[in-house]
Every structure is written in structure tokens, then in C-alpha cells.
Amino acid sequence: MRLAVLLEKLEYTCVQGSLDAEVSGITDDSRKVAEGSLFFCIRGAVRNGHEFAKEVSERGAKVLVVQEEVQAPDPVTVIRVEDTRRAMALIAAAWYGHPAEKLKVIGITGTKGKTTTTYMIRSILEAAGHRVGLIGTIETITGERVIPSNNTTPESIHIHEYFAEMVRAGFDSVVMEVSSQALMLHRTAGILFDIGIFTNLEPDHIGPAEHKSFEEYLQCKAMLFRQCRLGILNADDSHLEEILKGHTCQVETYGFGAGADYRAQDAQLLSRPGYLGIAYRVTGKRSFYVEIDLPGKFSIYNSLAAIAVCDYFGVEQEKMTAALKQAKVKGRIEMIRVSDDFTLMIDYAHNAMSLESLLTTLKEYHPKRLVCLFGCGGNRARSRRFEMGEVSGTYADLTIITSDNPRNEEPEAILADIETGIQKTDGTYIKIINRKEAIAYAIHHGQPGDVIVLAGKGHEDYQEIRGVKYPMDERVLIREILEEDARG
């Protein structure tokens, strides 16, 4: 493709070379440069892509997109822009033929609820006959591929690659999680979302490698509502007004408050051995009864957002209620039937905020005992261990401390930090380092009326130890434990 065509929507300066250069491929990975490539020099957290200018030129790169001065041989075209990440998003869209313009694009941002809401929306729209792609924390589904995710929102090159695959597969829409990091780093720059959704906001992802402050975190989330046509937002969130500051979209809201466009009323907790759910009545722009096989108030919020989106698509009420009843998300309050006496579930809660939200929700169902099994990842902030220990000790009747992804740390040291947090409370706990043995203990000691939650791993199917990812899926571990029990 001719370089001038790729640059059509970009402000730039051609420092050297020709805009008539023919580009054979685009990449920000120096290892993937081939003859005729366009290479984006990205300043990253670990390496500065500008340092590779000479190397990639020698390997055949024909065009360099830069935001800093570089030295490149005369045949190489150098394009200078203000921000190479933003340029990468716009050029990637052009390279793949602007596929976002051929799809209804739904973006979801917020601290919690993004993943579950994406799957609810996809479930309803597919039940109504739409073909829907998905990009999120767990996986990307393009119709051509199902790709396990490394980031909540991929780099812009991959976003448009996935969009193009969805178009080729005959998809008409896509629902995607849009992280604050993605918005800050311009991964979605140039995409006009048909719908943007805001779930909620709490302090998270604040630190040296993420956001400098809560204010920056909030401002990045708010960017979505300056690049969408319709914003659907949680009316009950205390940060709503700040999120909407400077918005350019039409606004609709959902929540429990009287002013919300889609409101939940008459909520009821549903409970029986091995099952927790919730039911409520939607009022406002729509009026019907909803029952969901997921527990908690946050399940109401997630489903209301999904209903508001699918109302925009004109989905019939019966298809909404049937699809919501069936909607499941791997590793998000995922109930695994192991006994007629107690309830066991797997959830991704992996920090103090998400664990507290989960445990307080489950307490509302008045279990005989609330049992929480979890660990913490190595080579991450030690404070998370103390905090999660204190949360579990406060809300759970029994905590089983075990190993998560120890990475390059000793599991015993991580468990000791968690124990320090629990000891600030009166909570009862035991330590079992081996996760399978810990799960077996939880199952074998389950009592009638218990709710047991395996927290932290969720959808993950590995355990990372000393730089190696070993297969470990909690669903497989549970199945193995039950098979071993059956054999006696």
C-alpha cells in the first residue's frame, strides 16, 4: 500500500524520503520487520523503539514513524508525528481498510464489570441473530480465531487486524473492553464507537507502571465518551458527573435511582444448594422481569447495561430475558456443581477491592459459612497481600491461603504476607501451599449451606513459577479431585 494513503488522516512531517514509498507491512516489533516494512518507533515502559531505527533500516524497513530524531539511511522515509502510538492506531486502521467503520462497535470501560457485561451483550445480540465479535480480558473472538488475551485491550495494530477478521467472517458488530491504559496509550484512537458504556469507578491501576493518580485514571476513562455516539452510564456511580465532563455523545443511564433511563426494582436474591442468582424488574424505557444465574447487585448493574445496549439494537424482550438467563463467563462467579449440600464457585477477584465486593455480595445470601480460598501473585506489590488477607479475614468464616502465580518469589513468603493481613482480624485460616491440595481440603470439609469461593485465578489455566507457565485449570483440578474421591 502506498505510504501517502496510510497517512491520509494524520498530521505529520516527512523528514526524509518519499510519500510514494510502497509499504509491505506494518509493525512495532523490531523482530518482525521485513523488506518494505513500516516500523513504528514507540517509546515504551522498558525500551524505546527509536533505539532500533538503524537496526530495522538495515533489515529492510522502508518507512520509520517517529516522534524523536533518529538517524536513518537515505533510502528510508522518516515520518515525524507528535505521538507515534496515536499514529500507529490511525495508520493501522487505514492498513486494514478501516474495518471499524463496517461494524457496530460497542466499548465498555470501568473498574469492575467489563468482562461480564461484554459476554451478556454478546449473548443477547447473538440470540437475536447478530454475529458479534469480542475483545476482552479473557479472549478475542474474531470468527476466524479465538485468541487468549494478554491485555484487556490489545495494541491498536491488533485491534484493527481483529476487526478486519470479523468483517471477513461476516460479523456485523463487536463488543470490547476498553481499559484506561488503552485510552491513555491511544490504542483506540480514531475509532468512533457506536456505544460507550461506563460501569463504575474505584481506585485501581494506580502506580509507577500504570496511572500516576486517581484523577488521571478517571480522566482516561472519560475519554471514551468523547469518541462515541451514544454513552450508556451507571447513574448510581458517584463519579458520573466527572466522567461526563466534556462528553460529546448522547447520554442514557441505568441504575436503581429514580432518574435512570433503565431502572431495577424489586430485586430478590435466589438461593438453593449449588446455586445463587438474582431476579428483578426492569422499569423506565423498558418493563419486564429478569432472572439471572449470577449472584449480587453488580449482576443487576451488568445486566441493565446489556439491556440498554440491546434495546438500541431493537432486540425483543423475550430474547433478552432468555439470553440473560443463559449468560455465563468463565472465571466470573462461575458456579461448579460438586455437591447437593454446598455451593462452590470460581472467581477472578485478585485484589482487595474485587475480593471485598465479592465476599460482601456472597454474605448477603446468608451462607452457613463463607469459605474463601486464595493466594497472591509474586513480583507484584506486597501491599496487595496484606490487604487481601485483611479483607478475607474480615468477611470469610474460613480462609484457605494457598499459592497463586508465585513467579520468581517463594510461595511460603507470599503466604506469610497474606497471613500478616489476616492476623489483623479475628478470622480463622489455614495455609496449604499446593493449590490442588487446598481445593481438595475445601471440598472435603464443605458443610451443608456453605458457599466456597476459589478466588484469584478465574479464567486462567496456568500457574507461573520461575518464568515458566505450567498447565493448571481449577476446573480440571476439581474434576481430578472428584474422580480420585470416586475411586476411593
Task: Tell me about this structure.
This protein has 488 residues and is α/β, with parallel strands linked by helices. The longest helix is centred in the middle third of the chain and has 16 residues. The mean pLDDT is 95. Helix 4 packs across helix 9, helix 11 runs parallel beside helix 12 and helix 12 crosses helix 13. The protein has an eleven-stranded mixed beta sheet with strand order 9-8-7-10-6-11-12-13-14-15-16, with helices on both faces. The chain contains 15 helices and 24 strands. It has three domains: 93 residues, 3-Layer(aba) Sandwich (Udp-n-acetylmuramoylalanyl-d-glutamate--2,6- Diaminopimelate Ligase, Chain: A, domain 1); 228 residues, Mur-like, catalytic domain (UDP-N-acetylmuramoyl-L-alanine:D-glutamate ligase, 3-Layer(aba) Sandwich); 154 residues, Alpha-Beta Complex (Protein-Tyrosine Phosphatase, Chain A), CATH 3.90.190.20.
List keywords for this structure.
488 residues, alpha/beta, UDP-N-acetylmuramoyl-L-alanine:D-glutamate ligase, six-stranded mixed beta sheet, 15 helices, 24 strands
- For the largest sheet, list the strands in their spatial order: 9-8-7-10-6-11-12-13-14-15-16
Classified in CATH, the superfamily of the largest domain is Mur-like, catalytic domain
Structural class: alpha/beta
Report the CATH C-level class of the largest domain.
Answer: Alpha Beta
Rg over C-alpha atoms, rounded to the nearest angstrom: 24 Å
Helices, by number, come to 15
Kindly estimate the percentage of residues that lie in beta strands according to DSSP: 15-25%
CATH architecture of the largest domain: 3-Layer(aba) Sandwich
Mean pLDDT: 95
